[in-house]
Amino acid sequence: MRIENKKNGSSPSSGAKPKDSGSSETSETSEILETSEALSKKTKLLIVDDDEAILTQMKWGLSNDYEVSLAEDGVCALSVFKKERPPLVVLDLGLPPRPRTEIEGLRLLKAFLDEAPMTKVIIVSGNMERSNEINAVSQGAYDFFSKPIDLNAFQTILKKAHYLYEVENEQLQLKVV
Fold this sequence. Notes:
The chain is an alpha/beta fold. It is built from 6 helices and 6 strands.
């Protein structure tokens, strides 16, 4: 079992807080710092795959734009997911204990969406049976991508998934207010 997390760098404010003198200038400075911190935060992304080469390739290719967490099996994946609450998950269907079937991947898909329904789960699989694709998407997967992964095309899918997550989240916030 392996869990790895690459945290983003320090924020622009570096933990320094403006002095509270009660002035509106201090309030404006504080708002600017909060906005800068929000803009500098990377989107959390959980990648679940039992193939270490795929994990390494995806981490290398995506860590500049995302705060990447890695998991090699379902137990690790659920633990990281509950702790980190990533809006984006990349999920291989063929995972231990039955890596030659889609059973574990589909079980995790359901678990992620039960825990956080707005999560965008992108399935990656080397098994290109159309039934797996239809089954995963009908159970709530955002998209289905085949291995080997074209990183440029995959980054486009991730950006679209994140944009939809943000729009849905904003819509939900507006309903609450």
